[in-house]
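Predict the assembly for these three chains.
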Amino acid sequence: MLKNITLGQYYPAESVVHRLDPRVKIVLLIAFVAAVFLVPNLSGFVLIALYLALACKLSKLPVKLLIKSIKPLRFILIFTFILNLFFTGGTTELLNLGFAVLTKEGLLNAIRYSLRLVFLVLGSSLLTLTTQPVTLTDGLERLLSPLKVIHFPAHEMAMMMTIALRFIPTLLEEADKIMKAQSARGSDFETGRLLERVKAMVPLLVPLFVSAFRRAGDLAMAMEARCYHGGEGRTRLHVLKMQKNDWIAIGATAVLIVLVIVEGRIFSV
Amino acid sequence: MQLQFEQVTHTYQAGSPFQSTAIRDVSLTLGSGELTALIGHTGSGKSTLAQHMNALLAPTSGRVLLDGKDINQKGVSKKETRQRIGLVFQYAETQLFEETVAKDVAFGPKNLGLSQAEIDARVKEALHRVGLPEEIAEKSPFELSGGQMRRAAIAGVIAMRPEMLVLDEPAAGLDPMGREDMLALVRSFHQAGTSIVMISHSMDDVARLAQRIIVMDQGQVALDGPAEEVFQDADQLNQMDLDVPQVCKLALRLREEGFDFPLCYRMEDAEKALTALLKGGKPHA
Amino acid sequence: MSGIIEVQNVRYAYEEGGALAVNDVSFTVEEGEFTAILGRNGSGKSTLAKLLNGLYQPDSGTVLVRGMSTADETHIWDIRQTAGMVFQNPDNQLVATMVREDVAFGLENTGVATEEMPGRIESALRAVGMEAFMDRAPHLLSGGQKQRVAIAGILAMRPRIIIFDEATAMLDPAGRREVFDTVERLNREGITILWITHFMEEAARCRRIHVMDGGRIVLSGTPSEIFADAEALRDLRLDVPAMKQLADRLQAQGIPVSGDVLQVEDMVREVKRLAAAI
């Protein structure tokens, strides 16, 4: 049944990475992305690869799962590789196919861009696989809360995301039920041309919207009855506190960035 | 008309870690003008079973035969199956979507490809059969009261003129009189010649209405027979966490207390037995 | 003596000048009581419930919760903390994606200190027998379990009274029993209960009943007083419990069954009494 769908791709495990403060994980991901784009040389990629491998190892995630996260990207990867391979230009000819010339610069660029993509996807998968969506929301709210000064609704945004996460399974189940109820009245959601199929969605979408609005009204009242009045004066069940491991992770990432920059000055490949 | 289940098993999300078998090896024959109640607690598989009756779900193994023909076979029209076997979901009013009640009721007949004249006639008839006044036809379904909305939704299925009507908890959420009215409505469909399968939690309703009772437990048919017989197993019903009718509970308790009391489930029978016990009963010693 | 809830001449209409959903209602709930408000769909009982903790404001008349008027905005959060509310649809009142966090919701809103929360959450969940489900997602629970989590969310805020707005209407019999038994236990532990329902069997288990119809309270009394007049109840589109019906039939046959019979156990007691007298 639809009840059992998993939201996000959280993979439960007991690991150092799972336990890191979500704020730290978000910031580190940003730093990591910066490092991936800063890195000029292939030798720098080795450093990043080592860092990533260590993080993956510590996360206790099955390797299969990580590989699976790259899989949807395989066509873009191949495309990027080929595009860079032949259209970079450059002077060091490796192979002349007549209709295209393979240069050393092209090959290096192709490897560079493909690796960047892989690293980006792996890095962000590492975040979503080791962090529950709610925790992520929590981390985002805390990170963005300084922006409240300029009236950025950090709390409201996080509350909205939490409620969405809570209600997506409920609404999916409801959609399934309504779809079946309309099918029982001879509705056909599966065949027909595009326009017909779009029209066939009306008997599903109208009841779904009506229900979602009713639920929203009910929920607003229930929240009010439980003394909800916005983020002001609110305490939290989970208080995020930086632990020793959080500082270690920050330190390690800082070292990576420094190394990547320094290494870029020393080596040229 | 006969609907036959042959060793039907249904497993949700087979092969995934969330795999769960909702019904197992169910064999049944339904139809031929019966008024059958399908009972069982939440999660007993009765809703899954109901969705097999008109091919909304296909069995993982086993077959469902309508007049001898496998309804999930290629080439058998699902639309025709669904026309012949109408399914009214729980809280059916949530499926209403059209601008007017009439248009909503017309949705099913329209999908069947009927002529406009035929559709109009059917809408009129269906509204009449569920007891909604004609002037409601041009109103928005969302302006109706809860009970009326439910009737309008049932009319939408009735308008397809099914030979068998499967109703999932038609009285859920209604107040006592609303409940009475709904049961009377179900009875009227039956009297008009439609086979009925009514899914219900309420043993009191079932005791009053059904000729045959099928009890589901853990995905399997636990009891199946005429009401009198099924309620003889009141102890077993209790064990399956089903609420036996109050009268039945009383009978069980009195037997526990050592009275020679028949296992009845109807008010009239209890009245008779108690009158005999307390009035004509034993003469003074 | 004033009660924990005092309702005085309250009127309420959803639209200005529209039909009154609650029409001149007055009643008192005493501390520790278990009171039912019984009425058919559309009788105004749910509207009345929402007037009791300031979700709606009366057009005229007053509602006092422990002496605080719901019209007084400075007390509104005290009132809602004192008078918690459990609603009809179990799906539409749980906010968080995990049971523990949902129970925390009210505590977070009222500024309870973080250190104090885990203890209060655990004892609230224990009180409704849901402590084993602390780390579950609400949408995977049964209807009865969801309602018990909703009750825990209210209990954690340490209310004096809980208002149940048809909290069992959408549950199956097992869920209904599960919730009602929990509520009876809470009442024995001192929490005042206001139980809004259209189920006769539930109302029969309360200590006091107010029957509503057309926005007014038309009957008030103990269950045996209320159910004594079956005709009057049927006129209000309500019913009497099955055992009461049976007792009435026996009385008509000349068997002197007590008029107080409402539940199976009452009838068993009466049959034993009468059989012994033969």
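Chain A touches chain C through 29 residues (CB under 8 Å). The longest strand of chain A covers residues 93-96.
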